[in-house]
Amino acid sequence: MNVVFIMNDTWRYDHVRANGNDWISTPNLDGFAAESAVFDRSYIGSFATIPCRHDLMKGRYGEPLHYWRPLQWDCLTLPEVLRANGYVTMLINDTPHMINYGFGFDRPFHAWQMIRGNEVDRFRTDWFREWRLGNMDKFRTSAGMAQFYRQTHDKFLEEQFFAPMVMDAACTWLERNHNHDKFFLWVDSFDPHEPWDPPQHYRDMYAPDYDGVEVVWPAYCRSSDVYTPEEQEHIGKLFAAECTMCDTHIGRVLTTIDNLGLRENTVVVIMSDHGHYFGEHDQQSKSGPLYEEVSHQILMIRHPHGIGSGERFQALTQPADFAPTVLEMLGIEAPAEMGIQGRSLLPQMAGSNEIHRPVAVSGTFPYEILPVGDPTYAGRRVPAPMVEPGWTPLTVTGPEYALIAYPERERNEVYHLPSDPGMTNNIVDANREREQELHRELMAFLETHDSPEWIKRIYGDGPAGVQVPDIDEHLKLVRQRGMPFTVTLDGSVL
User: Fold this and answer.
1) Contact (CB, 8 A) for 347 and 354
2) What pTM value is reported for the model?
3) Which strands form 221-222's sheet, in the order they lie side by side?
4) Distance of alpha carbon 234 from alpha carbon 34, whole angstroms
5) Cβ distance 403 to 439 under 8 Å?
6) What is the mean predicted confidence (pLDDT) over 303-317?
7) What is the pLDDT of residue 468?
């Protein structure tokens, strides 16, 4: 049996018509959902792009326990286990962080192909006449926009855009490799991550009459400080247009699978890693507390034998479940060396009523521990205007209630998701017992998932007086491996 895994970065759960959105166009995902096991309560574990890929490949949780970092040489990953069991493994991606700066996510595969030039991928040095955007405060950075223009200014045809190129490469690979006895294809599309610049006909589907500033790569900011309501609404429509473009070209991959006769022996998984805020919680970003708009993921699994087909599941699932699920579906025992922490979803798909996990814990590494002014993780810091000063909160999602858990416990938030899916009404004062219950689940998670002692102290007793004895060695190691973001002193990027 083969496996095709399609990851789309930043695609919000609620931006698929099959998930209840009545205004977006996603016909291919809708059709796929009708044939698949759809997990409606799938949540990010390690936020964001790279930490999530760690969870997926290793079946273990990365952040909040560990930092944004390259794939280690001394860990055993899902593609390597599949290789050892006779699978041909391939990575096709345009997600720059997986490869750039020696992050090494190509290492476990037999081969890999990267579509160059998306977002921070340093692909071109072409000279062009200097230009300045009006209203530059509305855009992410001047250096980023210059790089974006340098790398995309000559894209005119839909087939030249990133998501179409990634999915076209996947189709080509399937056509050339479908005769292998068994294969594992990982397709990692950075779209619909920003910049949001789909071809005009997709934009016209959602905003045909808009004549304001078209902010394809917005600043991370408090929305009301920077954007008019019309601008913020249009940014969201650009994202929807990008999602529809992605859906169109995922459809091409699904059609190729059918045309090659692979449906009967191929598991297909479609997933997103996290979402984005478009004015919700007054944020234009994906930073800060991980509310539903960011923490909730798309997860659909189509099994060739129809297991779970057309059903919707409420089990709390996380990316660390991916590796054990694939291994169980293929009848391969997970090596003890992997130290799997996730749980296979196959029993849920087959009808098990067992509670999959009591809560889903979502979060990011507490980058506040880094010395003030240290540039190592400048690209990972929460921008100052985004949240009130303090430490990074974790999100603990249960069957009905969710806790935003700060080390400063007096800042905690509790939400009742069935009645408040947008997490706008903090009911912590009236639900202290629920807060304590969810906090106990958080501490149990940290105790049982190899959490460093200082992490447990931060989220258990609060950050006051917490010492991080290995921080100097940590910074030294990261610098040796290369910083994940490089910007010159004058702000230019080459």
Assistant:
1) yes
2) 0.92
3) 221-222, 283-285, 277-278
4) 30
5) yes
6) 98
7) 55
Res 384 pLDDT > 50: no
Domain 2-349 and domain 360-481, same fold? Reply is: no
Residue with tokens 């849920």: 348
In three-state form (DSSP H/G/I as H, E/B as E, the rest C), the secondary structure along the chain is CEEEEEEECCCCCCCCHHHCCCCCCCHHHHHHHHCCEEECCEECCECCHHHHHHHHHHCCCCCCCCCCCCCCCCCCCHHHHHHHCCCEEEEEECCHHHCHHHCCCCCCCCEEEECCCCCCCCCCCCCCCCCCCCCHHHECCHHHHHHHHHHHCCCCCHHHCHHHHHHHHHHHHHHHHCCCCCEEEEEEECCCCCCCCCCHHHHHHHCCCCCCCCCCCECCEEHHHHCCHHHHHHHHHHHHHHHHHHHHHHHHHHHHHHHCCCHHHEEEEEEECCCCEECHHHEEECCCCCCHHHHECCEEEECCCCCCCCCEECCCECHHHHHHHHHHHCCCCCCHHHCCCCCCCHHHHCCCCCCCCCCEEEECCCHHHCCCCCCCCHHHCCCCCCCCCCCCCEEEECCCEEEEECCCHHHCEEEECCCCCCCCCCCHHHCHHHHHHHHHHHHHHHHHCCCCHHHHHHHHHCCCCCCCCCHHHHHHHHHHHCCCCCCCCCCCCC
* pLDDT at position 409: 86
Q: Across all residues in the chain, what is the average pLDDT?
A: 89
pLDDT over 70, % of the chain: 87
Question: Is residue 462 very low, low, confident or very high in pLDDT (cuts 50, 70, 90)?
Answer: low
Q: How far apart are CA 146 and CA 393, in angstroms?
A: 33
- The alpha carbon dihedral of 487, 488, 489, 490 has a sign of negative
User: What is the C-alpha to C-alpha distance for residues 97 and 119, in angstroms, rounded to an integer?
Assistant: 10
Q: Is the pLDDT of residue 238 over 70?
A: yes
The single-letter code of the amino acid at 421 is: P
Torsion of CA 296, 243, 364, 184, to 10 degrees: 90
Residue type, 388: E
Residue 140: predicted pLDDT: 86
- Which pLDDT does position 380 carry in this prediction? 42
Tell me what the mean pLDDT of segment 134-154 comes to: 86
| CATH dotted code for 2-349 | 3.40.720.10
| pLDDT band, residue 453 (cuts 50/70/90) | confident
Q: Using 50, 70 and 90 to split pLDDT, how confident is the model at 101?
A: confident
The pLDDT of 213-219, averaged and rounded, is: 94
**Domain ranges for the chain:** 2-349, 360-481
Residue 311 CB: number of other CB atoms within 10 A? 13
Q: Give CATH for domain 360-481.
A: 3.30.1120.10
How far is CA 196 from each of CA 162, 245, 421, rounded to the nearest angstrom? 11, 11, 26
* pLDDT value, residue 382: 39
Average pLDDT over residues 66-72: 83
